[in-house]
Here is the input.
Amino acid sequence: MSDTPAASVMDAIVSLCKRRGFIYPASEIYGGIRGFWDYGPLGVLLKNNIRDDWWRNMVECPPIGPDGQPVEIVGLDSAIIQHPKVWHASGHVDSFNDPMVDDRETKGRYRADHVKVLVPRDGQGNSFAFVEDREAAEKKIKRDARRNPTDYDEVILTTLPPEAYARVVGPDTRTPGTLTEPRAFSLMLDTYPGPIRDEDNKTYLRPETAQGIFLQFKNVVDTTRVKVPFGIAQVGKSFRNEVTPRNFIFRSREFEQMELEFFCPPDDALMWYEFWRAQRMAWWQSLGIDPSHLCYRDHDADELAFYSKATVDIEYKYPFTAPGFGELEGIAHRGDYDLSQHAKHSGQKLDYFDQDLQLRLKEQGTSAEEIKTRSRYVPNVIEPSSGLTRGVLVLLCEAYRRDESRPSGEYLAFKPSLAPVKVGIFPLVNKEGMPEIASKLYMDLRQKYTCEFDAKQSIGKRYARMDEIGTPYCVTIDGDTLKDQTVTVRDRDSATQQRINIDQVGSYLNERLSG
Ligand code: ATP
Here is the structure.
């Protein structure tokens, strides 16, 4: 990111994403549909690279646990649509709501807890609401109230008493008293599988992937060799009928999550919470994100769900939150809430008999009574839950650079192993034997890396395009290649070129693209 104002950085990123095929508005030829996005040819590569890195670090090569042994994690791909009772048991039908306010005049609709209000400190006159643009609200104060914005306090709309609403000027109007009082708005998107469309057949598109994991906890324990502590990981689509989808793909109505439910003995839950808290931060940093752009935000006691002993968010400094931070991942200690709820609502036992613990307690001489009660328990759950599509946004924001000295004027400095295209292969001119050599190199390298072969346009234009899509290396075959078998390799970040032997291209890339 550069020092350019936030709005223009975001505008530039959104425009680059569209222009180069990362992200398009969904249904664009029909005018678009709010809160939905399509991932284009490069966007899907970038998204898959993040997903694959997470999967590799969670399922294929999980981290080393506090006991020095690799943590045990298995994968799952559960259905998006589940039995309606699932969503009653999980609490989503009753309480997965956001407070919403409407503007009677403009028909605008806002998440009430996202609306901020500048309230006059002396209690005289109107208050001025805004969603993000505080400056616009301050301008209104100067114009309409002819007062100084520094004489106002900033509060969240939902903290105002109902009688104060009559004096609030809405974010997009100049008349006070047009905002309704907040009311609960369900984020669940319903659907009716099967031929009959009635209340009995109504279920929901999942608002998180986590519940599918809890539903299969028993099957996984019974049919595989896992033992508590262990985790089940899942990546997939989730749907939330967000009141105000905004900030590009940050808050959308259809998005992807990467979730781990880590099941552990109740006595060890806090230790595993600390473990995952540290691991998840380390993973985001391993994607090349500047540590100073990430932070933890521990939830205050009054913010915690009643069943949660601790929850922390990992936040990122998005251009639209800077200098503040916004959520990227939540890590929650969920106690035994989910398994207990599903046990209660389904009538199935979801507890676990811990044979290892039984043996350990026996060795310690624990009484038979105590062994019996302690070795059968409902596991506690630590849940690191992150947004995959939000991760795409973070990597785009993190990689975006302005550089007026380049023909492209901007480039994306992705960590090489995450870049959608790893290598561009170019014959300098499309003749004199160069395309043949370039094509041979391309046929070789494409076995291992996503490569692009391009023989059109000037070499400067080809480099500019590769800078814009964040390709870390470009290999150019020129007149000298014919004489001495050397090629130039251009490095995206330094924009410098190096001559190496064509036989060394493979090892050169290997060194730089692994890990
Ligand atoms: P918020 O408070 O911002 O609505 P949340 O706390 O409800 O988010 P979680 O339920 O903890 O979010 O979801 C876990 C992760 O899923 C979030 O950290 C985020 O990365 C991602 N996520 C949640 N909602 C959305 C959305 N509407 N669009 C994109 N990603 C989302």
